[in-house]
Amino acid sequence: MVFELVEEQGAVAPGKKVLIDVGPAPGAVGLVSASVLIESKKGERVLRVFSPHFPQVSLIDNEGVSSLPVVELHQLADGTNVVILTRNFVVDSTEAGEAVARSVIERIGLNEVELYLVITSGRFSGTGDVYAASNDQQLLRRAVDSGAKVLSSVENLPVDRLTASLMRKAMTSKVRTLLVLADTEGFLPDFRSAKRVLQFLSALLQMEIDTRKLDEEIARQQAFLRQMEEAFGELGEGERREGRPSYIG
Questions:
Q1: What span, in angstroms and rounded, lies between the C-alpha atoms of 189 and 34?
Q2: 137-145 vs 191-205: helix crossing angle, rounded to 10
Q3: Exposed, middle or buried, 243 (CB in 10 Å: 0-12/13-18/19+)?
Q4: Is the pTM of this model over 0.90?
Q5: Which among 103, 102, 90, 136 is positioned nearest to 117, based on CA atoms?
Q6: Which of 55 and 98 is assigned the larger pLDDT?
Q7: Residue 248's pLDDT is what?
Q8: Rounded to an integer, what distance in angstroms lies between the CA atom of residue 154 and that of residue 70?
Q9: How far does CA 160 lie from the centroid of its chain?
Q10: Contact between 106 and 5 (Cβ < 8 Å)
């Protein structure tokens, strides 16, 4: 079966570059981090991929706007030769993963990638730390110096078929690869974990990242959680005063 793709392409800066790959994962840590990076560094979309073989659903964002499943590649500006690969759905088909990986590689050139950096997240240690693993010991030391802890195992990681395909191709071509895992509870968009990832990236890549809007989101989320905690506390107290049983779960 032919895997058909529809692509809209812009300009990719020449020269060696960093490819940052993020997809949906618990807490949306990578996607939040990518959004902040793209806005902070004036990212420009250079590749957009649609396909009839992606899930045939309409996705609704927080503002009620619908969109189709799409894979996008953004080139950061502001003197930074970094490209960011994102998607708004999990690529769970091997065929789709391989086809999109080929499109990405054809667009930027795997030989032009000096660092392939995967950002994902999951419930790992409960500490909120950032963990890293790499096929290059010097790169792993840089990651540790930038604030990450060494990831002891890379089994059962929350990555989709697109990332798996790109990782195989990067490893085969001996591209330095860094896997970054953010620890998260994953119940809500984890803005605090995203902030820690951005602080790590800022140190690792030696770039300044404007996180002021993210800080505002963190403050709003914390205020909301406190209000919810107080509301549930008052509800439980009222039930105890009335002598009614209180159920959890």
A1: 13
A2: 120
A3: exposed
A4: no
A5: 136
A6: 98
A7: 46
A8: 27
A9: 12
A10: no
Q: Please indicate, yes or no, whether residues 145 and 247 belong to a single structural domain of this protein.
A: no
Based on the domain organization, do 186 and 217 belong to the same domain?
Answer: no
Rg from Cα positions in the chain: 20
Q: Which residue in this structure is represented by tokens 């020449």? A: 14
Residue 28 per-residue DSSP state: G
| pLDDT tens digits, one per residue of 181-204 | 999 987 789 999 999 999 999 999
* Euclidean distance between CA atoms 114 and 154, whole angstroms: 22
CA dihedral for 111, 51, 179, 45, sign (positive or negative):
positive
- Looking at every residue in the chain, the average pLDDT score rounds to 87
- Does residue 132 contact residue 151 with C-beta atoms inside 8 Å? yes
- What order of strands is seen across the sheet that includes strand 177-183? 6-9, 44-50, 71-75, 82-87, 17-22, 113-122, 177-183, 130-134, 149-150
Residue 249's pLDDT is 42
% of the chain surpassing 70 pLDDT: 88
Domain that holds residue 219: 211-249
- 100 and 155, same domain (yes or no): yes
**Looking at beta carbons, which pairs linking 89-95 to residues 24 or more positions away fall under 8 Å?**
89/24, 89/54, 89/55, 89/57, 89/59, 90/23, 90/24, 90/160, 91/23, 91/54, 91/160, 91/161, 91/162, 92/160, 92/161, 93/53, 93/161, 94/161, 94/165, 95/1, 95/3, 95/53
Residues 70 and 34 in one domain: yes
Answer for the pair 101, 160: CB distance below 8 angstroms, yes or no. no
How many distinct structural domains can be found in the chain?
Answer: 2
CB 190 within 8 A of CB 29: yes
Same domain, 155 and 67: yes
Say whether both 117 and 231 belong to one domain.
no
